[in-house]
Amino acid sequence: MPDGPGLELIMAEVNRGNPGAVLDTGYDREQASLVVPAERVREVLEWLRDTPGQEYTFLSSLHAADYLPAEPRFAVHYELLNRERYERIRVKALLPDPASPGDVAVGLAPGNGKVPTGAGGEVPGTGAGESRHGSGLTGGEPSEGSWRGGEEGSGGAPGESRPTESSSPPAENGEGRPTEPSSSPQTNGTRPFPEIDSVVDLFPTADFQEREAYDFFGIVFRGHPDLRRMFMPEDYVGHPQRRDFPIGGEPVIFTRDEPADPGWWK
Fold it and tell me: Domains of the chain (ranges plus CATH)?
């Protein structure tokens, strides 16, 4: 994979033909990454795929991450592979949460033009807090008021499966298949979903992986040919890999709680 200086050269070449397409670079745990705003991800991926000398023609992995409380909150990670040189490069698309007024649509901190940082000054998705399964930053648990299951207005308990039209966007057409997401953010009740362009037409391997990210994180991929849940039931409320999704379980009772809950041990 490209080393640090090589990654900076790639960033400069991309931005020469596509000004502002790459915001920053990252090199962590021997993983080279280009940080891009969500609205520029397709042109960066096309450049890496089609430019002579780059030719990262295979998308080996696509996954999402939730960096709550950092802003932008979400990221979609694209792992590209050049099978001739056995080189990998990662593209990280920063994706704001449209339900949060603090997120900036272009992925930049207001006023300074710099890539935003999360806890400990890390760029979301480039530091040690990153996880393959999207657990995000290691600190900054959501406040008590943010622990909820389904989206606001869904009317369901956390993890509950119930028949409701708002729990399984996008809407289905007359053939029982979902319609293509519109250009405006999809909503579940009153809470809008983050959106990013699908890359299935560029990399067919993105098909099921975008569906997985939609299922677990509620990220809508515009233009996906068959965007619907993949693992959870269609009427499932919420997206279980978001950081503000409650983990459930029963409260742990300690001996000091005996006065308040006599006979807890029976």
Answer: 4-222 (3.30.460.80)
Q: What is the pLDDT of residues 238-266, one digit of tens each?
A: 999 999 988 776 666 666 666 676 665 56
Cis ω on the peptide bond leading into residue 69 (within 30° of 0)? yes
pLDDT per residue over 5-43, tens digit each? 888 999 999 999 999 999 999 888 888 899 999 999 999
Summarised one tens digit per residue, pLDDT across range 85-139 is 999 999 999 999 998 765 544 333 333 333 444 444 444 544 433 444 443 333 3
User: What tokens appear for 73 in the block?
Assistant: 């909150």
Beta partners for 222? 197
CA 228 to chain centre: 16
Residue with tokens 């033909």: 17
Inter-axis angle of helices 4-17 and 41-50, to 10 degrees?
Answer: 110
How far is the CA of 96 from the CAs of 1, 64, 187, 213, in angstroms? 28, 13, 15, 15
